[in-house]
Predict the 3D structure of the following.
Amino acid sequence: MKKTQEYIQEHKQRFVGELLEILRIPSISADSSYKGDVEKMAFDLADKLKEAGAENVEVCRTDGHPIVYGEKIIDKNLPTVLVYGHYDVQPADPLELWDSPPFDPVIKKTEIHPEGAIFARGACDDKGQLYMHVKAFEAMMKTGELPCNVKFMVEGEEEVGSVNLTTFVKENKERLKADIILVSDTGMLANDTPSITTGLRGLSYVEVEVTGPNRDLHSGLYGGCVTNPLNILAKMIATLHDDKKKITIPGFYDKVEELSKEEREEMAKAPFSKEDYCKALDIEDVYGEEGYTTLERGSIRPSLDVNGMWGGYTGEGAKTVIPSKAYAKISMRLVPNQNSEEITKLFTEYFQSLAPKGIRVKVTPHHGGEPSVTPINTIGYKAASKAYEATFGKKPIPLRSGGSIPIVAMFEKELGLKTILMGFGLDSDAIHSPNEHFGLFNYFKGIETIPYFYSNFKELSND
Ligand code: BES
Ligand code: MN
Ligand code: MN
């Protein structure tokens, strides 16, 4: 890998320039007015893969946004790494909270990123992290050091629930045959404390609509006499947690996997400062389920949160009105053995039971997904761990994350493959938020670490 590493050092500046180029394309999957940009992004990525040395590159049509495929098969007897990533991004709003335009990337130094960080929507999630793989591949190709076969599958619908990816995977099992899946779409603890994500939470996401009177009413004429859907919705939502901050939905915890004392002790070794955590978020204290640490609450324990709530009058000034309807979007993060469909069903039944007489409740499920865990006694994990050791000079800490990448569980089900999550982002990189960014240190470290994964994986596969 010596030539590969030299190549990376020589071409670093160009690698940054190319990433800035693709960050200028607003490939927002959720908003149909950006369909043309999403499409352009797919074709640009296909070109980049070809330039890097991939063959059989194809922009595959789906019922939604296209999937970009490319491969390099050097020898059928060698192991094959399937790289997954997503080229779509979250919407950029609220725009007024960005210090620079979301699709006009700039490099700025920050306290955490003294070498500079690229500020743009998608810089970390996931264009920057995806592009590390394209450039690592280029470096191995151009130096003749590619140790394994590689397949790329990059989708444009991750941020909207990967609705068409399952069909694609089911219909392309032969083409996607591999020995391991490699994904960079998560984070690590800190730039001097590398970690590898070994678990992801699942997701149940619902929208609720609560209806009271058949029209908006004057809050003076009717105030105090009828059920106000917003008052009631607030109360119903408040009922979903008890005093110990446990979720009250009957059966919610029935299948939750409890970790052993040893496993929890192992987890507690990860460095965590409550003080720094609170300071970074400008909060006085943390909050959550009694009996668990913050690290545990955000990874091995399920959670329930309101993502948005509206109804009635929210415009300027005051309007005296009792709304006819109130709405909320609610997400539940799930942990191993919980099933998203089951949880959505339990939620729906319970939420409906909370409504007082005269209030109608409609629950509409959105996309969901299953949790996943990556065992650490596999050659895939060992190859990744050794790769981080080579570039960080430290063994990475295995750590479960609170985020969700539902396709990881789907890959396991459909392709029978485990996924290695080599993420290089930081929690403070503000993914999905205004001023999303990705450290140059992290971008380069990713490009440097990935080739070691390939060589380690090949070597360990031979043993
Ligand atoms: N890359 C994230 C997930 C992530 C980020 C996992 C950081 C762990 C650490 C992904 O793009 C994402 O945003 N997933 C969504 C779920 C998806 C179904 C829309 C999420 O976690 O909210
Ligand atoms: Mn992502
Ligand atoms: Mn995301």
Residues 125-126, 158-159, 161, 185-187, 200, 203, 367, 369, 401, 403-406 surround BES (ligand 1) (CB under 6 Å). The CA atoms of residues 170 and 414 lie 7 Å apart. The domain at 202-256+302-366 is CATH 3.30.70.360 (Alpha-Beta Plaits). The chain has twelve helices and 18 strands.
